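Sequence in, structure out. Go.
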Amino acid sequence: MTTSHHTKVLKQIRNKPGKYSKFLKHNVPKERAFGANTKRCKNCGNPHGHIGKYGINLCRKCFRDFATELGFKQYS
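Output:
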């Protein structure tokens, strides 16, 4: 069974409970509680440049678009 994604293999072995449970234990990616992939932009889904302060949860690119709507002012 050579495949790139674990869900394809799960479909193939679903009728074999022993192999199915062992495969789930060792090959399915676990849910993350912290780290870069848990924090994503709520607008575009980008994990890079995340601004989470004050519950904004936007990436820096989307923040520039929505900053004036959120009440931020740009001082030069």
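Check: Residues 17-27 form the longest helix (11 residues). The two ends are 60 Å apart (CA to CA).
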